[in-house]
Specification:
By secondary structure, the protein is an alpha+beta fold. The chain folds into 2 domains: 170 residues, D-3-phosphoglycerate dehydrogenase, domain 3 (60s Ribosomal Protein L30, Chain: A, 2-Layer Sandwich); 271 residues, no CATH class. The chain contains 20 helices and 12 strands. The strands form 4 sheets. The chain has a 6-stranded mixed β-sheet with strand order 6-3-8-9-10-11. A hairpin with a 3-residue loop joins strand 4 and strand 5. Helix 14 packs antiparallel against helix 16 and helix 16 crosses helix 18. The longest helix has 23 residues. It is globular and about 75 Å long. The N terminus is likely disordered. Bound molecules: iron/sulfur cluster. Iron/sulfur cluster binds next to helix 16 and helix 18.
């Protein structure tokens, strides 16, 4: 809730393992915010690692808070900030970089425009000076150890990823306070007066009626059959509700460019990932080995799966970049950011993509976006909400649909490919060790990339008819997520996160 009340009461801090989370709040859930329609560019956002819900979303919330503080008319009186991280953000926010992302957002930096070197520079300056450049406008004393309050056991009923930012004046009275929910994929809802949940940015920028609306796989296939349009062309016509056609094409080409830069930077960078797990970056070494292998004269029987090792490499490169907090494209989240780029790099290098008036990369992303819209509209792409099936499973389905499309699949075959992609990730839990997006996340992206390629190829062998529809698989994912214990939903309280014992 945004308010300018004059109280500075500190809520009790609940902390520690083994205690039952306390659920507070007035909404049943914010899991299915009403977006009249989603754009493909809502699903593919240029941002920073390691997590769209724990990094990109909170950074956008912090940026929004600057506007809220400005609206109070007392921006220049702010002398102290407090940030409460609740539920999953409190449990794994430190490992996922939620605190640093909020510091960057409060400094006026946006996830889609911040340059990688700016991230370290800004954080170093805040830590060295003990001052945060609020909105890039004025310095405010900032001690991160005191400013951030981690409250993992306080879970809002609206969404497990909740945060509240409060600004105080010199008398320790509240100048502005706002609560947010980071609902996955960088999407953010603000908890406004009267318990209203408002998308950030404002609805006017997000809600657009489109000529061919769809929210289910069945509707999408039926629309394609009725209009004679391909999935990619139908999506592109819908995108025209937001911006001219050429602009959408150019922006999707830019997304592909950033994905390529990310892979290139990943395979050129060695060392150890941050966070304390001492995970070695492997892609640089693997890249050298693959180049050497491919250059060597061939002897013996041909290994038909050699290309898959390149797929693994591309996925690792992206997810190592993500874990290092560098620039990636959410696809549809940061944790699962390696799958679509890996499959696209595979398509670029090893597949005969069908020629069309639109570049195949643009068609791939449009179709993957259509699948993402269906999943987000009916279930979730948030690991904190439904487990890893919502992140890696969704990305796998999106990549499978996109790859099938550029191989020349029909809309029914595309729907089938996406269904195979999600069906075989059902039940996948989220249990990152130490709350870092490293183990199992990095390798899991490689596994799902290979699965997506196989799903597309299996669907292409058929005629599009199959038993379980994409819509049924998505609904099963939603129900499985609802039944899943919170231990397996980005809290690092179950699975590998606790099975792993530090020596
Ligand atoms: S386990 Fe899956 S959902 Fe959880 S942080 Fe890793 S990639 Fe994301």
């Amino acid at each position: 809730m945004t308010s300018h009340a004059t109280t500075s009461k500190t809520p009790p801090i609940t902390n520690g393992r083994g205690l039952e989370p306390t659920v507070v709040g007035s909404h049943a859930t914010a899991a299915a915010p009403v977006f009249e329609s989603l754009s493909v560019l809502d699903l593919f956002k240029i941002g920073i690692g390691p997590s769209s819900s724990h990094t990109v979303g909170p950074m956008r919330a912090a940026l929004d808070f600057l506007g809220q503080a400005d609206a109070s008319g007392r921006f220049d009186e702010i002398v102290r900030l407090r940030i409460d991280l609740l539920g999953s953000l409190g449990a794994t926010g430190s490992g996922h970089g939620t605190d640093t992302a909020i510091m960057l957002g409060l400094s006026g930096l946006a996830p889609d425009t911040v340059e990688t070197p700016q991230i370290a520079e800004t954080l170093e300056r805040i830590r060295a000076t003990g001052e945060l450049p609020l909105g890039g406008r004025r310095a405010v004393a900032f001690d991160e150890a005191k400013a951030f309050v981690f409250r993992p056991l306080t879970v809002r009923s609206e969404h497990p990823n909740a945060l509240r930012i409060t600004a105080y004046d010199a008398a320790d009275e509240t100048i502005a306070t706002a609560g947010y929910y980071s609902i996955g994929g960088g999407f953010v809802m603000r908890h406004d007066e009267g318990d209203v949940l408002s998308p950030v940015p404002a609805p006017a920028e997000q809600l657009h009626p489109v000529p061919h609306p769809f929210t289910t796989g069945d509707e999408l296939v039926a629309l394609c059959e009725e209009t004679g349009l391909s999935v990619a062309e139908l999506m592109l016509r819908n995108e025209a509700a937001w911006r001219p056609r050429e602009q959408t094409v150019a922006q999707l080409e830019r997304i592909w460019e950033v994905m390529q830069e990310c892979v290139a930077h990943g395979i050129a960078t060695g060392g150890i990932l941050p966070g304390g797990l001492d995970v070695k970056r492997r892609s640089k070494e693997w890249h050298a080995k693959l180049l050497e292998r491919d250059a060597a004269p061939k002897t013996g029987r041909p290994d038909l799966l050699e290309g898959m090792e390149w797929v693994n490499l591309y996925a690792l490169a992206v997810n190592e970049e993500n874990a290092a907090g560098s620039r990636v494209v959410t696809a549809p989240t940061n944790g699962a950011a390696g799958i679509i780029p890996a499959v696209m790099h595979y398509a670029d290098r090893f597949a005969d993509c069908v020629e069309d008036e639109l570049p195949w990369q643009v068609r791939f992303l449009l179709v993957a976006g259509a699948i993402g819209i269906i999943i987000k509209s009916n279930a979730s792409i948030s690991g904190a909400e439904v487990g890893c099936q919502g992140e890696v499973g969704s990305a796998c389905a999106m990549a499978a649909g996109g790859f099938a499309a550029v191989l020349g699949a029909t809309p029914a075959q595309i729907e089938n490919a996406a269904e195979i992609g999600i069906e075989h990730n059902l039940g996948l839990t989220c249990d990152p060790i130490k709350g870092l997006v490293q183990i199992p996340c990095i390798e899991r992206n490689a596994m799902a990339s290979v699965k997506a390629i196989n799903a597309a190829r299996m669907a292409k062998q058929g005629d599009g008819t199959h038993y379980v529809s994409l819509d049924t698989a998505v609904e099963t994912m939603r129900q499985t997520g609802a039944d899943m214990s919170d231990k397996y939903k980005e809290t690092a309280l179950g699975g590998l996160a606790v099975a792993y014992i530090e020596c």
